[in-house]
Structures are given as structure tokens and as C-alpha cells.
Design a protein that fits this description.
61 residues, mainly alpha, elongated
Length: 61
């Protein structure tokens, strides 16, 4: 049972690392996309959706 608990803890820390890994490009990249498209939010939503889909693919593993 102790090994299972450690695997779960490692899994949670890995998932948090993935969230941080995708949060930074989400925030910074979203601002860059917003600036490139002159304040239009639609490309930002598309960019964020793509990032969420990629992050979801990592979470499903």
C-alpha cells in the first residue's frame, strides 16, 4: 500500500508540473497573440483552446 501512495503522490506532482508548463505559455503566449492580432480575442481563445487540448492529452496518460 505504501508504494501505491508514493505513485499517486508522484502522479499529482507530475500533473502540477504539466499545469505550470502550460500555464506560462498560456499567459505569455496569450498576450503575444492578443498584441499581434490588434486586440482581437478570438485568436487568443483559439490559441488557449489548442493549449488546453494538448494539456488534456498529457493528463490522459
Amino acid at each position: 500500500m505504501g508504494v501505491l501512495k508514493e505513485e499517486t503522490r508522484m502522479s499529482i506532482s507530475r500533473k502540477l508540473g504539466i499545469l505550470v508548463f502550460f500555464a506560462v505559455p498560456g499567459i505569455i503566449g496569450g498576450g503575444i497573440i492578443y498584441h499581434i492580432f490588434d486586440g482581437n480575442y478570438l485568436p487568443v481563445f483559439i490559441y488557449e483552446t489548442i493549449l488546453l487540448l494538448i494539456a488534456g492529452a498529457f493528463f490522459s496518460k
